[in-house]
Each structure stands twice: as C-alpha cells, then as structure tokens.
Amino acid sequence: MVKFALRRAGNPAGRSFKLVVCLSKKNLGIEVQSGVVIAVKKLKPILGVQERQFKNEVNHLERVNHQNIVKLIGYCDETKERPVYDDYRKKYVVAEVQEKLLCYEYLSNGSLDNILRDECGRLDWQKRYKIITGICQGLCYLHEGLENNPIVHMDLKPSNILLDANMVPKIADFGLSRLFSEEQTRTYTMNVMGSM
C-alpha cells in the first residue's frame, strides 16, 4: 500500500489514499478513503519543465468545467526527505524528493488510442460520431467558453482523449497547453501564413 497526502484543489487539508491497480508507468488507479476510484498521474522529476507543466495543468483544470474535459479531483505537491545512495561518496545521504501527482476522475475505457489499436471493430459509426462530436465540443469550450482566456491544448492526440464507461470522450493532459488573452489570440491569428 502506497500512501501520500492528497491536497484537494482549493483545500489545503490532505486526504490519504491507497494504490489499487497500476494502470501504466505514469498513471495509477487509486482508491481514496471514501471508496471512490481516481486516476493518478505521477510526473517525472525534470528540472524546470516539470514545475511549469504541473502548475499549468492544475491552474487550467481548476477553472474548466465541461463534460468533455477530464475532471481534476485533487493534486499532491510535496517535498520529502529520503535516503538515497550516493555512488560517488559510497554511502547513503538524505535527499529532497519531490512528489508531484495529479488526481483525476477515473475513466474506465482508457484512451482512444488504445481502443483504436486494440479493438477497432468495437467502434461502430454511431460511437465514432459520438466521440468526435464530444472532442469538438470540448475543444470549442476550451477555445471559446472561458471568457477572454482561451486554452490551446497543443498536444491533442488519441492518447490524450480518455473515454468513460459510456464512451463519452474527455480531453486530458494539459501539460503543454497555453493560456491566451483575447489580444494574443488576435495577434497570433493575424500572423498565420499559408493555406489549407
């Protein structure tokens, strides 16, 4: 059993949770004390980039509320001291280790990428239409539904589209996303060259 302090968005009081099942190397299936299953994304410690991506994703997901955007349940941002073996000194030293976890609603059907690869025959045209319509509605909300502060995902791909038990698509993984003011959006679109 793995236990961490879980800080809910906007609530500094922590909650502990335990490991239920490992979904992948980056994601864990976790059961919170209340019995609710959530998905946990553990970020690798990469200097600078991780901190920026973590803050980006938390800030963006805290303010979005749409049926086609994955819901942030909470997060963990802690620094703990742990013994680490130092090969140079040939002894254990105490090092600060950062734990950065993002806790999301658990989406039982996994990613669109996995479904397209593993079970192509499972998606009839009605399901495909429902999925693409949901993705478009989620993107429309990110681009136009956030009052002068649109979010541009910048890494939309089948592995970043998750599906719930009813095959409702939800856009996930906002680590590379950018927040644009209305002026930046106008400037950006005016400088685009070329045609499609």
TrEMBL record:
Entry annotated with the keyword Kinase: yes
Catalytic activity: L-threonyl-[protein] + ATP = O-phospho-L-threonyl-[protein] + ADP + H(+); L-seryl-[protein] + ATP = O-phospho-L-seryl-[protein] + ADP + H(+)
Keywords: ATP-binding, Kinase, Nucleotide-binding, Serine/threonine-protein kinase, Transferase
Alphabetized GO MF terms: ATP binding; protein serine/threonine kinase activity
Entry annotated with the keyword Amino-acid biosynthesis: no
UniProt cross-references to InterPro entries, sorted A to Z: Kinase-like_dom_sf (IPR011009), Prot_kinase_dom (IPR000719), Ser/Thr_kinase_AS (IPR008271)
Top-level class of the enzyme under EC nomenclature: transferase
PROSITE patterns in the cross-refs: PROTEIN_KINASE_DOM (PS50011), PROTEIN_KINASE_ST (PS00108)
UniProt-recorded name of the protein: non-specific serine/threonine protein kinase
